Amino acid sequence: MGGINPYIAAPEITAATKPFSVVFQNLAEGLKQEVMIDPKKFLSSGSGLPGSLLDIAMALDIDIDHACGGVCACSTCHVVIKSGMPSCNESTDEEGDQLDKAPGVTPNSRLACQCVPDGTMNLIVDIPTWIRHRIREGN
Ligand code: FES
Asked: Is the pTM of this model over 0.85?
């Protein structure tokens, strides 16, 4: 499914122009995977906004739940940005509305499908345990 919701305002995004890294992790479960993103070579997965954390994860076979297909209509792609938040686009009101429904929300929570890094910083991204359990149990 494509990653743009025609019923909400498009977020302002600055596309990355230089390489950066993203560490996807859930330390409680021993997951820590660093990926290097070169915007000139990156092949979008088609999930979430182009260049979003969900797009990056799915393109590189890292599981993040995304029940609505990445169109800001659920909260299953909730992640927590541990480092690199200043390089990400601003959260929209629609994203905030969906995050309000997610368990374990923190000030650094984002929807992976709506969070697009501009490539000026490396990122560390926590994938909450409840999402990991949903994936494993096939719910
Ligand atoms: S996948 Fe539904 S809001 Fe991100």
From this structure: yes
